[in-house]
Amino acid sequence: MTKPRLRFFETAAGQQHITDGDKYLYQQPQPSHKIVVIGTGTIGQEHMRVASLLGRAQVHGIYDTQEHSLDVAEANYKTYASNTLVRYADLAAACNDSNADALFICTPNYTHYEILQVAIKSGKPIFLEKPMATDLQDAAATIAISEAYSSFIQIGLQYRYKAQYIEAFHEALSRRSLGEIKTISMSEYRPPFLDKVGQWNKFNANSGGTLVEKCCHYFDLINLLAQSQPTKVYASGGQAVNFKDFEHQGRASDIDDHAFVVIDYANGTRANFTLNMFCHEFTEELVVTGTQGRLVAKEVFNFHQQQGSRATVAIESGESAASRQTEVTYPALIEQSGHHGATYYEHIAFMDQLDGKPVEAATPLQGLWSMIVASAAQESMALGQAVEISPFMTANGLAGFLNH
Ligand SMILES: NC(=O)c1ccc[n+]([C@@H]2O[C@H](COP(=O)([O-])OP(=O)(O)OC[C@H]3O[C@@H](n4cnc5c(N)ncnc54)[C@H](O)[C@@H]3O)[C@@H](O)[C@H]2O)c1
Fold first, then answer.
1. Does residue 404 register a pLDDT over 80?
2. ∠ Cα 387 185 137 (to 5°)
């Protein structure tokens, strides 16, 4: 029998008389792995929380260049876990702790490639946050590293695990409810980039640009649905509202806050992506249309009303099959643990990879393709004209990845 996880009863006051010896359904999994988290800011702490909630790995140690981030992460960790965290004197010590068996790199984008150089010397499995690098050259070098690496590198593109996209992929790609997919539309409407340590996300040089930093998630989803390589990207966008008067250490912010992107794929699929970052709430929408129907996957997160996110998937099939609209969600504890539960399922994939099982987590190559679309869109915005992917890749030293 596969035991269901019944956290509600495990933690209910009225069930605390069950002694450890009598626990069967309430027995919590013993962590079989130990991880070190490098960068304990927003997402580093989310990974600590999610790893503990899942229970398959214990957070063994933490490393950050800012003492305050370590202090806050440790104080928060103590509210839900009991082990003492190891703190390291330097990055090499964090990567090479023989008591830990995997590394989570959760530092700002511009540090990923440099930190990876130290991390790979450990030979340990690595989780590397998205985007894998700030430019295509470092991203391609990361692929070369991962191909030569004795262990695996998983990229933090976890939106594919959001409940509505798991269902959308199932309908569009496994059940093929929409027939042959012809168009894909994706949009994100959201508030501005949040505050960060050193305000790294306000500068293109640190983040790789808005479309690379944030929208690589959506280009990954679109690439997965199109099941083909992009051939041409056209984009228009800029900085209309956000951070126009923002300066950090005398440097003015240069990041875009809105964009419209159109992508042509080799198999004839056409896609578009809309970004607007001067909204009051979060809304994400994916519309996929095929020869047999249309699918709309939508998520609304109204944080001003302190409402959790609500996600729905609708399928319109006309006379060809049943149409429906369903609300999709994960259990509340998982939903609230970060990115509406997506990070939790990303951790399951990482733990499964550690245990040698096949998974559908983001590979470095998929991370590179999400960056190719994002970077081509940024190039198109800068040039004011369409960017053909093949010459764009050749110009960036990526010709070897065409048809890869
Ligand atoms: N997958 C997702 O949905 C998601 C969400 C948020 C952030 N991210 C990514 O995670 C990374 C971190 O973002 P964040 O929001 O947590 O930023 P943050 O600023 O909140 O935290 C980053 C932390 O890294 C530390 N740091 C900076 N340079 C370091 C170095 N060289 N060595 C060790 N620590 C260092 C900072 O002191 C800070 O504590 C970025 O790459 C970002 O794109 C991913």
1. no
2. 40
CB-defined site of ligand 1, < 6 Å: 38-44, 63-66, 69, 106-109, 111, 129-130, 156, 158, 196-197, 213, 339
Ligand 1: which of 129, 161, 217, 370 to mutate, judged by most atoms within 8 Å of the beta carbon? 129
pLDDT one-digit tens code per residue, 98-155? 999 999 999 999 999 999 999 999 999 999 999 999 999 999 999 999 999 999 999 9
pLDDT value, residue 268: 98
pLDDT, one tens digit per residue, over 61-88 is 999 999 999 999 999 999 999 999 999 9
Largest CA distance in the chain: 69
What amino acid is encoded at 101 in this protein? Answer: D
- 308/179 Cα distance (integer angstroms): 33
How far is the centre of ligand 1, averaged over its atoms, from the C-alpha of 40 (Å)? 7
- CA dist 66 → 39, 147, 199, 297, 346 (Å): 9, 32, 13, 39, 26
Please give the distance, rounded to the nearest whole angstrom, from the Cα atom of residue 197 to the centre of ligand 1: 8
Query: Tokens 């040698």 — which residue?
Result: 356
In this structure, whether the domain defined by 28-155 belongs to CATH 2.170.120.30 is answered with no
Q: Which ligand 1 atom lies nearest to the CA of residue 342?
A: 3
- How many whole angstroms from 101 Cα to the centroid of ligand 1? 21
Q: Report CA(14)–ligand 1 centroid distance (Å).
A: 40
Q: Ligand 1 atom 30: the closest Cα is on which residue?
A: 65
107 CA to middle of ligand 1, Å? Answer: 3
Q: What is the pLDDT of residues 184-207, one digit of tens each?
A: 999 999 999 999 999 999 999 999
Cα 79 from Cα 392, distance rounded (Å): 49
Question: In the chain, where does the domain assigned CATH 3.30.360.10 lie?
Answer: 160-338+363-401
CATH of 160-338+363-401, one of 3.40.718.10, 3.30.360.10, 3.40.30.120, 3.50.50.60: 3.30.360.10
